[in-house]
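Researcher: Final request for today, and then I'll write up notes for the group meeting. The sequence and the SMILES for zinc ion follow.
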Amino acid sequence: MAIRHVNPYGKVEYLDRPLSDCSCNGCEGARRRERRSEVRRSQRRSSGWQTGGSVSGEPAKTKQSGERIEALWGGSEPEGDGDDHGHIASNDGLNADYVRYPGEEPIVNRKRRRGQR
Ligand SMILES: [Zn+2]
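Model: Predicted protein-zinc ion complex:
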């Protein structure tokens, strides 16, 4: 989408990219939009949680990073997390290293050993 830039002589120009040092409405608005979408992208990258999974038939959020898998379910939020959510995590994708049923204390809580990945 072209940016409607007004140059210092009052002439309108259409640009693909906003000028970094221009304060016309077109360039400022475009820079604001770019910053906002940059923030959204980095939030998606850092969280990695996906909706649409299920645990015990309840909607769950899941995350996989390497061999480690995690799921949250049964909380106050519709997607599975929120207050009192259940949480299960496995560092190797096979054995449970952390298990907590919704609203309860953890029943498995194995710390990741040093040097182990
Ligand atoms: Zn401009």
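Model: The CA atoms of residues 41 and 111 lie 31 Å apart. Residues 5-6, 19, 22, 24, 26-27 surround zinc ion (CB under 6 Å).
Researcher: Thanks, that's everything.
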